[in-house]
Amino acid sequence: MAATVWKGYLSFGLVSFPVRLFAAARPKTIHFHLLHKKDLSRVKEVWYCAKEEKRIERSEMVKGYEIDKGRSVVVNDVELKQIEPVTASTMDVVQFVRENEVDPLYFERSYYVGAEGKLTKPYALFVHALRDSKFHAVAKLSMHGREHVVLIRPMDDGLLLHTLFYQDELQKGNKRGESTKVDRKELDLAKNLIKQLAAPFQPESFHDEYRANVERLIQQKQNHETITTVERPRKAEVIDLMEALKRSLGAAKSSQAKTKTSKRRKVA
Question: Which class does domain 6-26+83-167 fall in?
Fold first, then answer.
């Protein structure tokens, strides 16, 4: 059974109903352990008190916030529990926005919103109301030590929730881009290239090549086999943009033709 990330009530107006949140996606990566180079034994994390210069146990630690150099305010879990906002147990809808109004740049994490127990009439009503009106709900929710602004949208017969970054969390200083005039012919070629490469999004056709390569590396080392290396094509700065676009368009057409031929053969 899927682990519950949060449970409480979803409330809009005077209507509220119990829900649970479940992780909608988790990244899959290869995790390595740190080993002692000498004997390849696992390295363990050791908590160390700098003042007393000795190792301490987890039970001897408390949470603290440094207010000045060497001065901290100690806070315990009971105190943190006492100051949790109402949104720790009730997800309050504060407004509705038109679908596609919120820039995906604000999306942080995604969760499935499941009805608590049997599917309730208010839950089903909320799903249909959002779908038919083409609106999404913006709500406030507290979990994992912070209050989130979240976007709730209909998905099939259920609800999907996205936690959103706050405005001051966006790294605007990293934004790049300049206003530059472009040649009309080059623009037309670029647009044609986009049309040639346009296709329905099929997530099942994408795979993590890096993870697959790491798994193959581990297998080959385990079997004492020769490691398969990856050759990287040399990249050079584009000098003749028009020529590069023409060649790209030609390559795209050729690839598309090969794909169609391959599909015909499979059907035959």
Answer: mainly beta
Give CATH 2.40.290.10 domain extents, the chain. 6-26+83-167
Q: Could you read off the pLDDT of 224-257 as tens digits, one per residue?
A: 999 999 888 776 666 677 787 788 888 877 776 6
Would you call 5 exposed, middle or buried from its count of C-beta atoms within 10 A (0-12, 13-18, 19+)?
A: middle
Q: Which amino acid is at 159?
A: L
What is the three-class DSSP state of 239? coil
Instruction: Give CA–CA dist 72/92, Å, rounded.
Output: 34
Phi-psi region of 78 (alpha: psi -120 to 50; beta: other; left: phi over 0): alpha
Q: How many CB atoms lie within 10 A of CB 19?
A: 22
Cβ–Cβ contacts within 10 Å for residue 6, how many? Answer: 19
Helix (H) or strand (E) holding 259: helix 241-267
Q: Could you count the other beta carbons within 10 Å of the beta carbon of residue 212? A: 11
CA distance 193 to 176: 24
